[in-house]
Amino acid sequence: MKFNLRTFITFIFTIFLAEVHSQDSINHYKALRLKNELGFQKSFRVLKTTLKSLEGFQTYYPGTKITLEKILRYHFYTAIHINQKENKLYSMDLTEFELKKNTSEEEITKETVSLIGDMFFGSNELKVIPFNN
């Protein structure tokens, strides 16, 4: 009887872990590029947001023909974690930046781009964004 109970508990625990992992994966969208050459602890930034989906990130960043999602994930090497408890940006050296609480996808992207653009390496990333004239 003990062996069957142990097997059952192990089975339930494994299913629970798989469920938690798959749920996190749904909320985490990896950066589309990594910046390995800088030697930071992470080769990408992380934007944690209370927004519930990436759907609103499909609009164009003002002055470009690039979606908000692509600006962040590709041009600024930023992973997006949706459905989080608060809005924060983590830089590659793991510095935390508090972001505004109630905001839209466009506003949080603009705030994030502004913060990254003020960083030493981020300012170079901002320079190569193809803005419309």
What's the β-strand tally?
A: 5
Shape descriptor reads globular
Query: Largest sheet, described in full?
Result: 5 strands, mixed
Give the strand line-up of the largest sheet: 1-3-2-4-5
Number of domains: 2
Strand % is 5-15%
Question: Can you write the helix and strand succession as a string?
Answer: HEEHEEEHH
Q: Kindly report how far apart the N and C termini lie.
A: 75 Å
Structural class: alpha+beta
Mean pLDDT across residues: 87
Low-confidence stretches: none
Helix content: 40-55%
Rg for CA atoms:
19 Å
**Helix segment count?**
4
Describe the structure.
By secondary structure, the protein is of the alpha+beta class. The protein has 2 domains: 1-27; 31-127. 41% of the residues lie in helices and 12% in strands. The chain contains 4 helices and 5 strands; from the N terminus they run αββαβββαα. The chain has a 5-stranded mixed β-sheet. The longest helix has 26 residues, at 2-27. The chain starts with a helix and ends in a 6-residue tail after the last helix.
